[in-house]
Design brief:
457 residues; 2 helices; 29 strands; 3% helix; globular
Amino acid sequence: MADGSKTAPGGKTETDGQRGQWTQATPAGYMPGFGNDFETEALPGALPVGQNSPQRTAYGLYAEQLSGSPFTAPRGTNERSWLYRIRPSVQHAQKFSKTALPHWKTAPATGEHDRPIGQLRWSPLPIPGEKLTFLTGMRTMTTSGDVNTQAGMAAHVYLVTQSMESDYFYNADGEFLIVPQQGRLRFFTEFGRIDVEPGEICVIPRGVKFKVELMDGPARGYVCENYGAKFTLPDRGPIGANCLANARDFKTPMAAFEDREETSRLTVKWCGTFNVAEIGHSPLDVVAWHGNYAPYKYDLRHFAPVGAIAFDHPDPSIFTVLTAPSETAGTANVDFVIFPERWAVAEHTFRPPWYHMNIMSEFMGLIYGVYDAKPEGFLPGGISLHNCMLPHGPDKAAYDHATKGELKPVKLTNTLAFMFETRFPQHLTRFAAEHESLQENYADCWTPLEKTFTGET
């Protein structure tokens, strides 16, 4: 599909297109005021000019608004897009029946096991040989908060061996932040296609329909299902106008559509329940759209880190890519933080993350390479969980290297770790508590830390 088009069943053509130069986007709601609207069309003239819902639309399309915020939200946080589609969504979502995805859990999901608290780590979850789509291959590791109050999140691992052919999905419970770790995926959304690979992320807002296709074999990765306020860019404060994630590097897709007349299934997640409707066509039939509520992707290798250049260690918050704010200023519903390639140059200091206890709960994954604070046992595709007020920090090997090595400038290369950090406790699912990849001896990594106190300066 290098030319952006292919023939769909029935001789119809599925195309990509654009109008204007709005092929890049900031996360919706970040930049206040007009100028944050993006527009794209797959057929020329599909977008009306000067109004959103004219009496007669081009090509016989239906005008439909998708709202990601209340109508009366302030301009800077008002999120909506106008979709010009072959059929209105009311024909995509009729006569639902219940279905089950037993490994996909939703908060509150407590009491699933009787495991005591503790610092936890998992080896990479193996990709099974069975046929699993993005939906059936979702494995929930933790949940936090309460989906019914639109607060908190769930952390999942996806294991995918099969594309979604005639299956489609949308999530009414929250937005997805997808972090690929192995294998490329194509997210074909109502707004167009987004291809992502390890080292990139994709965000799909609440209510956006999509399907997921494999691009080069089985795939594994992480998902943050954010029940709260949408992800946006964090304030930089004294850092100023540049560094961290820059708005220009976030990209929205160009319009693309399917005009397929064949039996399909649309699954909807709503308050933790799964509901499926059989429809006679593809719901990915948006020929043109404009607005500021749309899926987007970001290449994590474009993140511009900052750090200490004299002494002492900055807080890990300087690595925040996206934040989903809460009603409490400075306390996130979810922060998405990465630990990318970077220079370490600070003198007379302990360079790795120090030993600490935190009010936030930290779900961490490794995309590739070696994480400097855990050189042993934390593998690409693995997970660690350090919940609220449970102490953690470098293992013995990392501590010895940091305290005994010569502090010359060094570049940390071939490394990319991330963290889903939330103000809520993260509760283990039974799947996570009982999975064979759980490293029962993880806490032993701190046992060799001997007493070195002498009582002398």
